[in-house]
Design goal:
Layout: H1 4-22, E1 28-33, E2 38-44, E3 49-55, H2 59-64, H3 71-87, E4 94-96, H4 105-115
Parallel strand pairs: 1-4
Antiparallel strand pairs: 1-2, 2-3
Length: 120
């Protein structure tokens, strides 16, 4: 029986393969969530660099949030990463949820990024 980490790794690689095929050269909005915080990056895989990033660990976010591990924090991070991506000239992205289900904090971040002007 495979352990949880191995299953997550398989799920992540399977998803990234599909995103690579269907992305059409668009940057990828990647999400990472831990038990205490949530992070988002807009990554250009062709150049191999991060175009925009935001997380609940930033000083301004920590001051305004009760905790970095709830839907409110995910919403704030989604709005901030969308704002920074638009400032970098990115309008369309592909959403990379990683090994996480599209539910809860991940969904809240995605919805806030859409409201912030990103298209995916």
């Amino acid at each position: 029986m495979a352990d949880k980490l191995a299953l997550q790794t398989r799920r992540r690689s399977r998803l990234r393969y599909q995103l690579k095929i269907k992305s059409g050269g668009r940057p990828r909005l990647s999400v990472f969530r831990s038990g205490k915080h949530i992070y988002a990056q807009v990554i250009d895989d062709a150049q191999g660099r991060t175009l925009a990033a935001a997380s609940s660990i930033e000083k301004t976010m920590r001051e305004s949030l009760k905790t970095g591990a709830d839907k409110d924090a995910a919403t704030q991070v989604g709005k901030l990463v969308a704002e920074r991506a638009r400032a970098a000239g990115v309008e369309k992205v592909v959403f990379d949820r990683g090994p996480y289900l599209y539910h809860g904090r991940v969904k809240a971040l995605a919805d806030a990024a859409r409201e912030g002007g990103l298209s995916f």
